[in-house]
Design brief:
Elements lengths: L1 E3 L7 H11 L6 E4 L6 H9 L3 E3 L10 E4 L6 H9 L4 E3 L3 H15 L3 E5 L5 H8 L6 E3 L2 H5 L4 E8 L5 H11 L3 E7 L4 H16 L2 E5 L5 H11 L4 E5 L16 E5 L5 H20 L14 H16 L9 H14 L6 H15 L2 H17 L7 E9 L3 E5 L6 E4 L10 H4 L5 E8 L7 E4 H15 L7 E4 L2 E3 L2 E6 L2 E6 L18 E10 L4 E5 L1 H18 L5 E10 L2 E5 L4 E5 L20 E10 L4 E5 L7 H8 L5 E10 L2 E7 L2 E6 L20 E10 L4 E5 L19 H4 L23
Parallel strand pairs: 1-12, 2-3, 2-4, 4-5, 6-7, 6-8, 8-9, 10-11, 10-12, 15-17, 21-23, 26-28, 31-33
Antiparallel strand pairs: 13-14, 13-16, 14-15, 16-17, 18-22, 19-20, 20-21, 22-23, 24-25, 24-27, 25-26, 27-28, 29-30, 29-32, 30-31, 32-33
Helix pairs in contact: 4-5, 8-9, 12-13, 13-14
The protein binds iron/sulfur cluster (SF4).
């Protein structure tokens, strides 16, 4: 028997991309990278004029570039726009969803981890949307090499297996304190993998059809290998090893998302021919050629396989003779697998052999019903129209021999009155819970459908920012329990608060806002986090706070910590740095000379960098500059004292106060003519001088020591003076220094 998976062949995203290209065949169109991981398809496109380029720069003049379903990094779009190249974006929406998530994470300052294959084009594109880069992990070894992280958003390559995702997430807990999972395996992949795993459980041989470059095809191969010993990955039917297959074997055919239907069909036909050939050789096993000869029938076989393996006991009151024959035939075919056609054939055989014409009519009528009813099974979802409403139940015509009944208790997850919510003629979907309620009706449940829909919806919200309210029921080991949307939920202790929680009981009865971080499908149990909500609130507050800071604003703060290079000051939830050079106008040896821990002070914001979370503060900028006070403090005629701090050929600089120096010109140093200032003054000498002129704008204070020297200290008459003139040494007039002091003073306020 050959079973072909229903979900074989192009997935939604690949089909979309291929259709986009097919619609433009004959035009000047190229694909950026192979459109899909299938050599035959790529070759066929090339033959029809669709070339594959590796870089945007390689696009021919006037060509339209197709971005494939794997997506691309933002730089690719920018390069296309910059070069004025038209493009068709065939990025799969499932992949786009990941781009959006990692972009948002990056904007929020969160690290991103991608679970997937490093060189895969989808992963490369996704990394591009993180801007600053992302970690890509695919094994425990790669996880071990990660740095420790406080928090990280974790996304999945769309085609990895659920098992790998769960395994990697668990292993990441050793490297990341707070994991924000974003389950991004696409539903097409999940369905394909689930079905492949189911078929692999019952098949003797599995043939996986698809490109060897195709990641999702390789994953199918790995998955099938877990349940089936004989799994072959082929790209073409010519690779099939027919000698390994025997009549009576159940052969499963699964295919990757980039495998064209024609290729799958070829393999399927080939296998069917092989089966016929084996029968002809007469290996002695009855023909199982009940599988239909076209794809639609094969899909039906697969459907039946699924149904029967899920629920082997038909809840149908079969004629005992027929039932026996059906079961016997089914058993001969396979213990687990029975096809609709097999059952029908068996019934017909029984009719032909045993029945009178009247009985045959009766059974034909029964068979009509059987054809329909046999398709129903417990758990199946059926659709129908409401034909009757009472206070106790709703009767639904589901197009089968018997109507379906939905009792009030099964009508909704909410307590409703049937007549208030439904009208005759309304269409309704419900789940079969019993094929015979005792009165020949099929018992249905709308409530279960609502629960399933709710569960699907809730699963989609796992890893998102969607908030749920819940009341904590009980503190248990490692966390607390609660109910979310009617489902049991667990909040781990580490997800309750931003700090370590000693006593979990304090949360009992508290209403919390939470997000969903995981969902256990089997147990329909959720794992939630209140910490994500607190973190988000904290970040929003911080963001608002950062946005409120403006350069030049005055802020009040408290000194939290001193370092050698400055002080960190809390200015209301954010620590800014007051650098040592911005503490005072004079040189500060250590921050503790100006500030101390716990000191409250007013500061000015010198610079804000919200993205780097850096804020520079200034203190001295709020203080007057020493030279600004000079006009008030020093006037011509004042007597001042200071220390000689520097001697130059034209005079001596005297420090009147830190950063304020005055100049005594060489002519004003002494009463006598000096060749060198050093003949009268030394660095470090304390001197008294008279202020001759103050020019604060030019930062000049001219001083005269000579003006204060008593007359008798003026130089004595030179010996051997020959006449009166020699006695009177003509001193140069007191004049302003023409030297720019700025050349000699460091610019401390620039
Ligand atoms: S495998 Fe999924 S994500 Fe990838 S193209 Fe197909 S539908 Fe889209």
């Amino acid at each position: 028997m050959v079973i072909l998976a229903k979900n074989a062949g192009f997935c939604f995203g690949v089909k979309r991309a291929v259709d986009a290209v097919e619609a433009h065949i004959g035009e000047n169109i190229v694909t950026l990278g192979p459109l899909i991981h299938n050599r035959d398809v790529v070759r066929s496109l090339e033959e029809r004029g669709v070339a594959c380029i590796e870089r945007v720069e390689d696009a021919p003049e006037g060509a339209t570039v197709v971005i494939r379903s794997h997506g691309a990094a933002p730089e690719v779009y920018e390069a296309l726009k910059a070069r004025g190249i038209a493009y068709i974006d065939a990025t799969c929406p499932f992949v786009k969803r990941i781009h959006e998530r990692v972009r948002a994470a990056t904007e929020a300052g969160q690290r991103v981890i991608i679970v997937g294959e490093k060189g895969h084009p989808e992963v490369i594109g996704t990394i591009g949307w993180t801007g600053s880069g992302a970690f890509v992990v695919n094994s425990e070894e790669e996880i071990a090499a990660l740095p420790h992280m406080d928090e990280a958003v974790v996304v999945a390559q769309t085609t990895i297996t659920q098992e790998k995702w769960e395994h990697i997430l668990a292993a990441l807990e050793s490297r990341v304190d707070h994991i924000i999972p974003f389950m991004s395996i696409c539903s097409a992949t999940q369905q394909r993998q689930k079905e492949a795993a189911e078929i692999a459980k019952i098949a003797d041989t599995i043939i996986v059809v698809g490109g060897r470059q195709s990641s999702n095809t390789r994953k199918l191969y790995e998955l099938c290998r877990k349940s089936c010993k004989n799994v072959y990955h082929i790209e073409h039917k010519s690779e099939l090893l027919l000698e390994k297959m025997h009549l009576g074997d159940i052969i499963g055919i699964v295919a990757g998302a980039s495998t064209p239907d024609t290729m799958i069909r070829e393999v399927f036909d080939y296998m069917m021919e092989n089966e016929k050939a084996l029968q002809a050789e007469g290996e002695g096993i009855p023909s199982q050629e009940t599988a239909a000869s076209d794809m639609a029938d094969i899909a039906a076989v697969a459907q039946m396989t699924e149904e029967v393996s899920a629920d082997k006991e038909p809840d149908v009151a079969l004629d005992p003779t027929l039932k026996e024959t059906v079961e016997a035939t089914a058993d001969t075919a396979n213990e687990q697998v029975v096809s609709e056609a097999t059952a029908t054939d068996a019934v017909e055989t029984a009719q032909a052999e045993n029945d009178t014409p009247a009985k045959q009519d009766e059974k034909n009528e029964f068979l009509e019903g059987l054809e329909k009813v046999v398709r129903l099974k417990k758990g199946q979802i059926v659709k129908g129209n409401i034909v009757q409403i009472t206070d106790e139940d709703v009767c639904v015509n589901i197009g089968y021999k018997s109507d379906g009944i939905i009792p009030k208790s099964e009508l909704s997850i909410h307590d409703i009155n049937p007549k208030d919510v439904y009208n005759i003629g309304d269409e309704i979907e419900a789940e079969v819970i019993n094929l015979n309620d005792g009165e020949g009706n099929i018992l249905l449940s709308r409530k279960r459908v609502e629960k399933k829909l709710n569960w699907l919806k809730i699963q989609q919200n796992v890893g998102t920012d969607i908030l749920y309210k819940c009341v904590v029921k009980k503190a248990v080991k490692g966390g607390v329990t609660t109910k979310i949307e009617g489902y049991n939920a667990f909040i781990p202790a580490s997800q309750l608060s931003l700090k370590y929680v000693e006593d979990l009981k304090q949360f009992e009865g508290q209403e919390l806002e939470v997000t969903l971080i995981d969902a256990d499908k089997k147990q329909e149990r959720l794992v939630a986090s209140h910490k994500t909500v607190l973190l988000k609130e904290k970040k929003e507050k911080e963001k608002a706070l950062w946005e409120s800071f403006k350069k030049g604003d005055r802020v009040k703060g408290v000194v939290k910590r001193l370092t050698d290079f400055g002080a960190f000051v809390d200015i209301g939830g954010v620590d800014g740095l007051l650098h040592i050079s911005d503490m005072a106008w004079v040189r500060v040896k250590h921050p503790s000379d100006v500030v101390s821990e716990g000191q409250e002070m007013e500061l000015v914001i010198l610079n804000v960098e919200p993205s780097k979370k850096k804020i520079a503060l200034g203190y001295k900028q709020l203080l007057p500059k020493p030279w600004d006070l000079v006009p008030e403090k020093y006037h011509a005629g004042d007597i001042v004292r200071g220390k000689v701090v520097r001697i130059v050929p034209f005079g001596a600089f005297v420090q009147l106060e830190p950063t304020v120096d005055g100049l005594i010109h060489i002519s004003q140093v002494s009463n006598r003519r000096l060749d060198r200032v050093e003949d009268e003054l030394r660095i470090g000498d304390e001197v008294e001088a008279k202020v001759l002129e103050v020019n604060a704008d030019k930062r000049k204070i001219s001083l005269s020591r000579r003006a204060l020297l008593p007359v008798e200290e003026r130089p004595a008459k030179k010996a051997n003076f020959e006449n009166e003139e020699d006695f009177h040494y003509e001193l140069p007039p007191v004049q302003e220094s023409t030297v720019s002091l700025a050349e000699f003073f460091p610019k401390k306020d620039d």
